[in-house]
Amino acid sequence: MKLRAVELRRIAMPLVSPFRTSFGTQHQRDILLLKVITDGACGWGECVALADPGYSPEYVDGQSDVLRQFFLPALATGQGAAAVGEFGAPVVARLLEPFKGHRMAKAALEMAILDAELRETGRSFARELGGVVDRVPAGVSVGILESIPALLDVVAGYLGEGYRRIKLKIEPGWDVAPVRAVRERFGDDVALQVDANTAYTLRDARHLAKLDDFDLLLIEQPLAEDDVLGHADLAKTVRTPICLDESITSAQTAAAAIRLGATQVINIKPGRVGGYLEARAIHDVAAAHGVPVWCGGMIESGLGRAANAALASLPGFTLPGDISASGRFYRVDVTAPLVLEDGHIRVPTGAGLGVDPIPEILEEVTTAVDLFEF
Ligand code: NPG
Fold first, then answer.
1. Ligand 1 pocket member 298 (CB < 6 A)
2. 321-356, pLDDT tens digit by residue?
3. Residues annotated as catalytic (active site), given as ranges
4. What is the CATH number of domain 3-122+358-373?
């Protein structure tokens, strides 16, 4: 495979309603898409970085810059040096290894090259990654709202649509009361979990233990991302399983967190860990330790969601992921919309991602395009 060019395309997609978390409110998604053009095919990658570095150090302008200044030139040199037939997605991480961090940009580039490779040979993402099911249960993430009645209305709507699991965003002042209200109104059968996005400290351990009364699947990332030991200590006070998200940046950090007793469940987001191949490696490490995993979401377009559905079809993904239908966040998606079927999302079977951007829609949401030629 030979790279000819990479198109960097920025799109702006308004959200159907504002999405508030403990670190900020999103009104629209400013996404960087990569289109890799090779001698045999095209492939799409999606960079999940937000507009600002509120979730992680990455932000979309920064990812765009590091791609142009460092990653694309390194691939240009690298593919020249690679033996014939050697260049491809598994080589990308190795060529980019000298550069620290910027995992979301690395992941987007690897995704696009993997897509191009798979399209050329007619294989799907799910098959390549090792998927074993043809549909995955859909969970939905519910932002922080202005009142408990408003929250109950929103949750009722999602349960009515068939979502198989509800995740409530929490922060100090919006935790025990909303969880109690959802349990009281919808009963014990609803699969329910919470996500704090690092909003607490170990001093809140006794308060967080109050959530134990509500039979939650897990508490996601209650403490700071670098407070792995704190999570291990918290797990001694809180009975609800702790699930790390922001803290897990690689298979190595996953193995360490498991060994320390800091995480009983892992949220795997390919963008956060540098790509789908590293995501699969984390799945394998977790499976070897009997740790369940689930696929997180970053409000992706249909392109990223299709790839996430493929990842979530691996056998260790035993909990429903944040893999909601396109309509959860977008009135119009750039691909044919992903829809709920009996609370599940179908895993695409076509070559590569198995979905394509719809050209007219893509043009409509595009704010800038730039071409890097090899
Ligand atoms: O379903 O795509 C989705 C969103 C799921 O809540 C969700 N994601 O912290 O996990 C998170 C949160 C998030 C969204 C984080 C956007 C960062 C950006």
1. yes
2. 999 999 999 999 999 999 999 999 999 999 999 999
3. 169, 269
4. 3.30.390.10
